[in-house]
Specification:
Layout: H1 18-26, E1 30-33, E2 36-45, E3 50-58, H2 60-63, H3 66-75, E4 86-91, E5 101-109, E6 129-133, H4 140-156, H5 164-176, E7 180-187, E8 192-204, E9 209-219, H6 223-244, E10 248-253, H7 257-260, H8 263-273, E11 276-285
Helix pairs in contact: 4-5
């Protein structure tokens, strides 16, 4: 799982909070179609270096009707000027037809095979693998490098080579966030082989819910230690969220279909089998149909 700049929801976001709708109306981003609301604005993605239309909230009756959705996009300005990508947030049970494809899937941990015991993640840690809180003096450089790798790899999945300076800046923003919490996995007395980074005070303005944002889990090395380290770090995240009494949310980036069709769906299916539940999905319609 990895971080995204998009907001996250906890209950599928079938309804938006009154405060969110009021703020959208004040900003003149709230639109109404056939008595139903949607919120849309232009957004710049620094890693993909693209401007796109983001429909951050949309009533289900519009999402379920392709004609109404097309009308809503026209109202939001999708037909004005040069063609641009469009990203739409939808509840888990809504599927948009081609040329739409899944861009990001947000999942909430609900318990299951990867669930954490009251003792935390120890039962997932074969000796000599250990998980400990990250040391700002000795681990921060490695954590920054791993975050940059996750950001660059995510952009590559969409066919874009992220600017290294931009990826560095985004990673630095994460590291410097006041609610950032990181753990590292180590083997014996060696250096860290992987990390878990969380944001402990994340907030979804659309639903008005607070949550723990699982920004990134990444473990390097051979397959065995990598699997064990990933399991141990994930269990640590689950225990941390449970202690905070907040939902744990992470996301899966779906590579562009013409680059790796179905890869993101397989990752999501694996997570669902391991105690996660799809919360909501960001769907993307490319500016160029050939990229769909």
């Amino acid at each position: 799982m990895s971080n995204s700049a998009h907001p996250v929801g906890i209950t599928g976001a079938t309804h938006a909070s009154p405060d969110y709708l009021a703020a959208a109306a004040e900003a003149e981003l709230l639109h109404r179609l056939h008595g139903q609301y949607f919120v849309a604005d232009e957004q710049h993605d620094p890693l993909l270096d693209e401007r796109r239309l983001l429909v951050e909230f949309c009533a289900e009756s519009i999402l379920k009707d392709a004609t109404r959705l097309a009308e809503a996009l026209r109202i939001a300005g999708a037909g004005n000027g040069a063609a641009r990508p469009i990203v739409v947030r939808a509840p888990a049970h809504i599927t948009l037809a081609e040329p739409w494809h899944r861009h990001l899937t947000y999942l909430r941990h609900t318990g299951g095979p990867a669930d954490a015991s009251p003792e935390g993640p120890a039962r997932h840690r074969p000796a000599p693998l250990t998980v400990r809180p990250a040391d700002p003096d000795t681990d921060e450089a490695a954590i920054a490098r791993w975050l940059v790798k996750a950001l660059v790899d995510g952009s590559a999945g969409h066919g874009v080579a992220a600017d290294p300076a931009t990826a560095d800046a985004v990673a630095r923003d994460i590291i410097e966030a006041p609610d950032r919490v990181s753990f590292v996995a180590t083997q014996g007395d060696g250096p860290a082989i992987g990390h878990l980074t969380l944001l402990g005070q994340a907030h979804d303005p659309v639903t008005g819910r607070d949550y723990i944002d699982l920004v990134d889990v990444l473990v390097e090395g051979d397959a065995g230690p990598r699997r064990a380290g990933t399991a141990a770090l994930t269990a640590t995240a689950i225990a941390h969220a449970r202690n905070a009494r907040l939902p744990l949310i992470g996301n899966v980036i779906h590579p562009a279909p013409h680059l790796a069709a179905g890869h993101g769906d397989r990752v999501v299916a694996s997570l669902v089998a391991d105690g996660w539940e799809v919360d909501h999905v960001f769907w993307r319609r490319p500016a160029d149909p050939d990229d769909a």
